[in-house]
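seq as requested:
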Amino acid sequence: MNDFTPKQKLKHEETAYDVAYKLGERYLYVQSVDDGFDYTIYDKNLKPLDGGIYDDPDSSMSKAINNIIEDFVMLGTESIRDRTAPMLDTREFLEKVEVAEEQQSLSNQMDKSFEENMQNAYAIYQLKHTDHTRSFRFEGLAFIERNDIEIDSGNYNNLYTATVDDVAQGFDKSEILNMLFERFNINRPSDFRGHSISIGDVVALKMDGHITHHFVDTFGFKETAFLNMEESKIEHEIASRQETTLTDLLSEVAHNPKALIDALTKDYAMREKLSEIMSICEIAGDLSIEHSFEDMQTISSISRDIWLKYDDVALEDIRYFITSAINDGAVTADGLRDLSPKIIVDAFYNDNKNALCKTKDEKTISISDAANALQCEKKQEKPSVLQALRDAKKQCVEQNNNKKKGKER
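struct tokens:
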């Protein structure tokens, strides 16, 4: 670890190709690349958690580091802001990372073999050799519990796995564990690279497809949970951060929406989605009465489609025209769905909201109304047979009456 003062750290960052910091129980490594700064976040056991490119080649490394940290609230940023976070010897740090990655790769292979073994099997887990595990290596449950230390699978490597020997078949778990303890202390397998099974190790047993974990205590074994606490913590922190981000977005919507969107993400698709949300929020503010979310989506979508199709139409102007027409009762959100973009644009050009109302009435006649209207037209053009007979009979009566009147004269 380099014993730099805050000023020395800033100066070193401005000239260094790469830097490494310890942030609480996590680590940050940043290096200069052509299009900005490549960074990786590591957990307490030097396992990569996250990373990416800070794509601002004109930024200084100090600014890049601060911005990267601010994007990861979970890391705790105060130590970086006041420049008190320990700056590490970069070469030494990278050597430790390389060793940790090799050991993790082997451990992952062992885990895979253990999980895919269809027979009864066992696995030997021992603590990783990191700064984090140094304080509780070879300690029993009394020490672990007294110091609120989790039996965390993320602190362990799987160093060995094999099928339970035929000689152990038929024995219960307690007997199998004792046999394994004896074997890995007195007659260790030649390909086993760990130390003799000791206090603080964990032995996993798979019996009839069911896996249990057993902590090696001062006297005997104790069955224990064996979860990756770091991964569980990250999932919780990410969920909390997403909820906070949404709350901040809604509370800041009335200020500078474009700057807020740009600050939230550099992903184009996400910006488009956020823009749509902002548009719907503005529409909600412009409407005089409450509308459903689907109605506001319709207004937003139609406004955007027209804006994209007609170069001389501003998005804000067409959106305001449509919401004003709805407020004035000239058209409804449902009615908008029946109108073509051209009809809406023509009404917009002529500043004639009532054109939407007239066109809507003509365009949205129902099928049943159309059928009734057609029947009426047919009745007028071609009277029924019964009506024709009645008319003929009436005409005949009138003619006979006229003849009688002529004879009387």
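The mean pLDDT is 75.
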